[in-house]
Each structure stands twice: as structure tokens, then as C-alpha cells.
Structure to design on (82 residues):
């Protein structure tokens, strides 16, 4: 992890796409790779990386149902929608 000049840590999977921001932010340094978000997602928005942590591979399928961030024991997933 690196620190920005303001002191904030970087280490999320938030990405910017052509349609704007991703629907979710995953704080990878909080995630313990339990796989709950990947298993519970009804729209299969996530796949796992080589460490078992979630990667947002289908952001267009995310409906903001909240299942992933409500079930995450580490509170590592937050919505970017307001």
C-alpha cells in the first residue's frame, strides 16, 4: 500500500470506466478472501483473483442489491452510488 500526499491509503479496486465510476469499491487491504460476496452475488458481478479476493468483472450487471456489502464480515465493500 502507498500513501497519498494527504495521508490516505491506496489499495482499492475502484476503477473508472467509460460509463463513469464502478458501482462498488472493494478495500482489498480489509478483505480476508472469505468468498461470501462472490458466492452470494445473484448477478455474478465478481470473480476471484489468485488469492481468492473478489474482482469486479461485470460491473454492468450490478443492481446495487446490497447483498455483498451487507454480508461482508470485513466491511470491505461499499457502494459508489448515492
Amino acid at each position: 500500500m502507498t500513501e497519498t500526499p494527504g495521508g490516505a491509503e491506496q489499495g482499492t479496486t475502484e476503477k473508472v470506466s467509460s460509463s463513469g465510476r464502478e458501482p462498488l469499491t472493494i478495500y482489498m487491504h480489509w478483505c480476508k478472501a472469505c468468498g461470501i460476496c462472490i458466492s452470494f452475488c445473484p448477478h455474478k458481478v465478481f470473480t476471484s483473483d489468485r488469492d481468492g479476493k473478489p474482482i469486479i468483472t461485470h460491473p454492468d450487471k450490478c443492481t446495487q442489491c446490497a447483498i455483498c456489502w451487507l454480508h461482508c464480515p470485513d466491511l470491505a465493500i461499499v457502494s459508489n452510488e448515492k
In short: The chain has one domain: 9-79.
